[in-house]
Design brief:
Blueprint (H helix, E strand, L loop, with lengths): L1 H23 L4 H5 L5 H9 L12 H32 L5 H40 L1
Helix pairs in contact: 1-5, 4-5
Length: 137
């Protein structure tokens, strides 16, 4: 039963990631507002210190997305560590049912966590991209 659930979660997370892949191929958030020739670019050039570059300026959406990326990256590392720990408990159970059940539970919960992390990353990226598109039109 647990193997069926884990395989199902793996398939759904893979499909979810593959379906979100076209979202990652869109234009960067910085170029939408600070694109070449935009009014924002000409205004910012007037107030930039000597030698400063426009490519170093981040929009609020890009800043929020950068922070969310760091947080979700950390959560992804936690998911991998929990999968390793749960797998270690499961493999080294040595016939102890409690230890094996605890390991399989941790593996299952880590798989659900991975799906949640991927979903939240995809939703965040989609929302910020749509907000940037609406703001620049």
């Amino acid at each position: 039963m647990i193997k069926k659930i884990m395989v199902t979660c793996g398939i759904f997370s893979t499909l979810f990631f593959l379906l979100s892949a076209p979202v990652f191929a869109q234009t960067p958030l910085n170029t939408a507002i600070l694109g070449p020739g935009s009014e924002t670019e000409t205004l910012l050039k007037k107030f930039l210190p000597a030698g400063a570059d426009l490519s170093t300026i981040k929009t609020p959406g890009a800043l929020v997305f950068g922070i969310v990326q760091i947080i979700l990256g950390f959560l992804g590392i936690v998911v991998v560590i929990m999968m390793i720990y749960g797998g270690f408990l499961w493999v080294t159970a040595g016939g102890e049912e409690d230890k094996a059940k605890k390991g399989s539970t941790i593996l299952f919960q880590a798989a659900i966590g991975a799906v949640i992390v991927l979903a939240s990353y995809t939703i965040t990226y989609f929302v910020l991209y749509q907000l940037t598109t609406v703001v620049t039109q």
